[in-house]
Design the sequence.
């Protein structure tokens, strides 16, 4: 029960931020919004303010902002279809952008309040590791690796993990003097990752927390692109990593048992994934709507709303079919 409650809260927060983006920009550019809804299915709660109905619905599996003229023809001057292409793109783009912002906020909170931000200065040298062998010391600050200026701990981790064990040329600041070192990363027997044997000092800094949240988000986005490259090449291990709602609920349950910080981290990860996925040019997703608007700008006249709506309906049906297949995989992997 606790897992279900936490999962509903996480899903609802992600959907709320996404739809709030669409809603806010729609209102800003003067589009008539009929309804702002969190969830699908029968209405549980709701009220009306001005021209807009606000509702919470029974099934916590999504949400929507119902705008005048979004998927149908409308002669209303305040309809979505009668706004400029730039304004319509801004409305659509605002949803994924809000999910990125949510991810950045959550990562910033995590980095600042929980663990602090790992810096480029070394706190500890692990015994019997390459760092000890070449004489690195606590208090050293890594300035550059292979000529690349180092500004964050994530960059150090990236350089080491992608080294494939090849030698790295380090510039280290020690007592205001630059020291040159060459180090050969080794494989950690426990994690299977390359390491040199250093532990970073941790600093609580709001500006560093924000900077690291952007760095973390960038790494996640690139990770998603790597996933799609693997998906195109049909690597089996990549396909096995795909999870649907049931799989996500299972992950939320595991995170909730570990602590709220893990729930926040998972929520940030899902939020950024949701943003990137929504920007893909797949029918029924925000990316395809933006693609249709770009085509409209290139051809100089709008696409028939009925035809575009039909494409989105077909795309939505295919997405639901894919979701059913992934859900079946999740259930069999978890319970059988």
Sequence:
């Amino acid at each position: 029960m606790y897992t279900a409650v936490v999962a509903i809260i996480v899903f609802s927060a992600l959907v709320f931020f996404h739809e709030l983006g669409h809603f806010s920009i729609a209102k800003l550019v003067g589009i008539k919004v009929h309804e702002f809804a969190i969830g699908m299915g029968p209405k549980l709660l709701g009220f009306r303010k001005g021209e807009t109905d606000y509702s919470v619905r029974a099934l916590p599996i999504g949400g929507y902002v119902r705008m005048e003229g979004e998927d149908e023809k409308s002669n209303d001057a305040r309809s979505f279809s009668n706004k400029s292409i730039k304004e319509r793109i801004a409305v659509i783009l605002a949803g994924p952008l809000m999910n990125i912002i949510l991810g950045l906020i959550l990562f910033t909170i995590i980095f600042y309040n929980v663990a602090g931000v790992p810096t480029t200065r070394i706190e500890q040298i692990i015994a019997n590791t390459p760092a000890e062998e070449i004489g690195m010391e606590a208090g050293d600050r890594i300035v550059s690796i292979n000529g690349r200026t180092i500004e964050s701990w994530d960059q150090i981790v990236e350089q080491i993990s992608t080294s494939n064990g090849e030698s790295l040329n380090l510039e280290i600041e020690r007592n205001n003097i630059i020291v040159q070192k060459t180090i050969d990363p080794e494989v950690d027997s426990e994690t299977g990752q390359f390491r040199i044997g250093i532990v970073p000092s941790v600093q609580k800094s709001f500006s560093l927390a924000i900077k690291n949240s952007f760095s973390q988000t960038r790494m996640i986005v690139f990770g998603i692109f790597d996933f799609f490259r693997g998906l195109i090449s049909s690597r089996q291990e990549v396909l096995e990593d795909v999870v649907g709602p049931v799989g996500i609920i299972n992950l939320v349950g595991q995170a909730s048992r570990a602590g709220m910080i893990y729930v926040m981290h998972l929520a940030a990860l899902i939020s950024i994934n949701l943003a990137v996925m929504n920007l893909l040019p797949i029918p029924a997703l925000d990316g395809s709507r933006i693609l249709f608007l770009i085509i409209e700008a290139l051809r100089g006249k709008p696409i028939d709303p009925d035809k575009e709506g039909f494409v989105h309906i077909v795309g939505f049906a295919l997405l639901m079919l894919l979701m059913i297949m992934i859900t079946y995989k999740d259930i069999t992997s978890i319970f059988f």
Q: What stands out?
A: The first helix runs from residue 2 to 28. Residues 2-114+239-335 form one domain. The CA atoms of residues 222 and 228 lie 10 Å apart.
